[in-house]
Amino acid sequence: MNDTDAADFQALLRIAGIAIPPDRIPVMLDAYRHWLALVAVLDEPMPMAEEPAAAPRFGGAA
């Protein structure tokens, strides 16, 4: 991750009006950085053949 993660995290907290006790900020920032890594996967489109949402559904559909 880069140095702007902490600044972005602080900005998002201010925008949301959330106050975190100073001793909890390192833990919450670490969680935020892990979350960024998880959502980065969503920026990579899947090929249509692998995309589960595009798979046809047979039987049982009304």
Question: Would you give an account of this structure?
Answer:
The protein is an all-alpha fold and 62 residues long. Helix content is 45%, strand content 0%. It is built from 2 helices and no strands. The chain has helices at 4-16, 25-39. The longest helix has 15 residues, at 25-39. It is elongated and about 55 Å long. The model has no long low-confidence stretch (mean pLDDT 83).
Could you give the topology of this structure?
Elements: H1 4-16, H2 25-39
Helical content stands at 40-55%
Shape: elongated
* CA gyration radius, whole angstroms: 19 Å
* Number of beta-strand segments: 0
What oligomerization state is this entry in?
Answer: single chain
Proportion in β-strands: under 5%
Report the average pLDDT across residues. Answer: 83
Give the helix/strand class.
mainly alpha
Tell me about the largest β-sheet: none
Spell out the helices and strands N to C: HH
End-to-end gap: 47 Å
